[in-house]
Amino acid sequence: MPKDMQDIERPRQLVLRKPDPTDGAAVWELVRDCKPLDENSMYCNLVQAEHFRDTCVVADLDGDVVGWISGHMIPNEDALFVWQVAVSPRARGLGLGRKMLTHLVERDECTDATRLNTTITRDNDASWALFRSLARALGGELSDDPHFTRHEHFDGRHATEHMVTITLPRPARQARAA
């Protein structure tokens, strides 16, 4: 390669895709690096990547896992539940969290979802900002209610998790189905 070609910076390649089990270890490391997310076992991330791949997202930047969403369709409901959103410090400021969520909501496997649910503690400003931004971008309504409470569910060891619900507008769902 000519010397002057070595100095040219290549554009970074971002790919959003379904995970596979070989992503489990990288996802586990990413979640560990994204405090205050709860760390799951590596095995949990392997199972998510295999059994729930249709409702999970990996963000790959130049061959490195820099983003992760774990989610699932809630059984017997038309709702997509987002468990975790992780963005590597190396990929922050790219709007990656919202890109991954939008990518997920637009998947064929999520066509029947009329709402998106997630839980967030009151002090998690970054998550509140992300999901409010998503609701605005989708034109959906955002609401929340205490769901898993500090004393009733967590024996005083964890802050109350609020169930956040974003209604997914009908036109958006119809556009995905078309």
UniProtKB/TrEMBL annotation:
Residue ranges of every copy of the N-acetyltransferase domain listed in the record: 14-171
Coiled-coil region list: none
EC number: 2.3.1.178
Pfam family, one: Acetyltransf_1
Domain of life the protein comes from: Bacteria
Name of this protein: L-2,4-diaminobutyric acid acetyltransferase
GO biological process: ectoine biosynthetic process
Organism (species): Paracoccus liaowanqingii
PROSITE patterns per UniProt: GNAT
Pathway as given in its UniProt record: Amine and polyamine biosynthesis; ectoine biosynthesis; L-ectoine from L-aspartate 4-semialdehyde: step 2/3
InterPro entries per UniProt: Acyl_CoA_acyltransferase, Ectoine_EctA, GNAT_dom
Family, per entry: Belongs to the acetyltransferase family. EctA subfamily.
Keyword Acyltransferase: yes
Keywords: Acyltransferase, Transferase
Molecular function, one GO term: diaminobutyrate acetyltransferase activity
The UniProt record lists the keyword Cytoplasm: no
